[in-house]
Design goal:
- By secondary structure, the protein is an all-alpha fold.
- It has one domain.
- The chain has 6 helices and no strands.
- The longest helix is centred in the middle third of the chain and has 25 residues.
- 31% of the residues are buried.
Length: 153
Amino acid sequence: MKKTEPLLLLTARFMMGGVFAYAGFAKLREPPEWFLQVLEQYALIPHVAVPVLARVIPWLEWLLGAMLLSGYLCRFSALSLSVFSLFSIVLTGYQFFAGQLPEECGCFGSGTIELTPAQSISLNLFLVFSGLLLFMRTNHPYSLDAVIRKRAA
């Protein structure tokens, strides 16, 4: 492993984990109905699934982001969050090409950080690639996974 690779992995973990932990926490501070209204604006999401997703997504974002920050189950967390980011790209892209962009993306709760569609897609592309980089590495130095693996050996 190159000398810079552990720092690159740590930086990617902290950036991706921080974005998702904050995004989930910001949504959890809002009433669930707020995120439900945001999700209803996306045409690709079946209306039956919206109430469940509005309650589950913020918790998953917060939990998986915290897991990635701590370095616990890095590969699982990174891949799961990459999938979230990929779905966000698809949803935003579809709405853009359909000419039906929502008033707000709902990424970070109401009023805290507002992103344009281009900013949202750019951020999510960065997160997808960061997550894939983290997923492809089996060894994550400076992580809880490394501590657990060391103790098990």
